[in-house]
């Protein structure tokens, strides 16, 4: 049996760590457990979620140019699961009212979820979803 790796954490690289921290805390509801100006870590079951200053990552990688260049397009998506399809609609409206940018209002998808898309303050687009219950009509 070979060695394997496990996804332990996701670090969102940000140009404005305090602004993005405020969004993830105040809009998405994550509890901050470490906040150091250039680094924030949130309480989360399973996978560690953190924010780190992109320019400082250049320092860790011998000045790799990709950490200081302006990003174009989407590089990642965080998927936030709700308990029910009804919760998706309520939480989406709540997120947008608190400053998230609405991208696509929640709707029932062909893959069996109710899904909406929103952007955080740095323009990263994420999904909010719930698995639709199986009923006689869609079984």
TrEMBL record:
Species whose genome carries this gene: Paenibacillus terreus
SUPFAM superfamilies given in the database record: Glyoxalase/Bleomycin resistance protein/Dihydroxybiphenyl dioxygenase
Domain named VOC: residues: 6-131
Lineage: Bacteria, Bacillati, Bacillota, Bacilli, Bacillales
Pfam families per the UniProt record, alphabetical: Glyoxalase
UniProt protein name: VOC family protein
Coiled-coil boundaries: none
Domain of life: Bacteria
